[in-house]
């Protein structure tokens, strides 16, 4: 039998097919680890964003309530703040804004707790030291936004350094 070009071509095709690896078995597709990690980050990011929005709303509400109660910074506003904190009972002279500001420097209170105490009619909790105030503030996340404090208002006198930059 004589081999024609068609026969040779057919034999080559058969050899190529026999030597090629078998196709992979049919399986369900699973996401690659990078895709899974990205999806996980997206879910975590959405949770973080909702938590951040809630924290922003809480901060905005505290700022508004403080401003509503203590006003813009007239002497009467400063005196009302000092009295609410209990500095009048401590024998502090509250005759001027400067004296009120000096008296407030010696007091360690959390502004969130102050607003809550005013609304509930309870005593404002005081801390014995700046360290205790900082620890409590960081644990509770009750950090008053520095950018929202009026430059010369009563809230400014209550702010303390919580984070130390390098």
Shape: rod-shaped
- Beta-strand portion reads under 5%
> What Rg is obtained from the alpha carbons, in whole angstroms?
35 Å
Order of helices and strands: HHHHHHH
Signal peptide: 1-19
Keywords: Signal
Give me the secondary-structure topology.
Blueprint: H1 5-19, H2 33-70, H3 75-85, H4 97-105, H5 111-120, H6 130-140, H7 154-158
Helix pairs in contact: 3-4
Characteristic terms for this protein:
mainly alpha; 7 helices; rod-shaped; signal
Description of the molecule:
By secondary structure, this protein is mainly α. It has helices at about 5-20, 35-70, 75-85, 95-105, 110-120, 130-140, 155-160. It has a domain at about 55-165. It is about 60% helix and about 0% strand. It is rod-shaped. It starts with a helix and ends in an 8-residue tail after the last helix.
Quick overview of this protein structure:
The chain is rod-shaped, with a radius of gyration of 35 Å. It is 60% helix and 0% strand. It contains 7 helices and no strands.
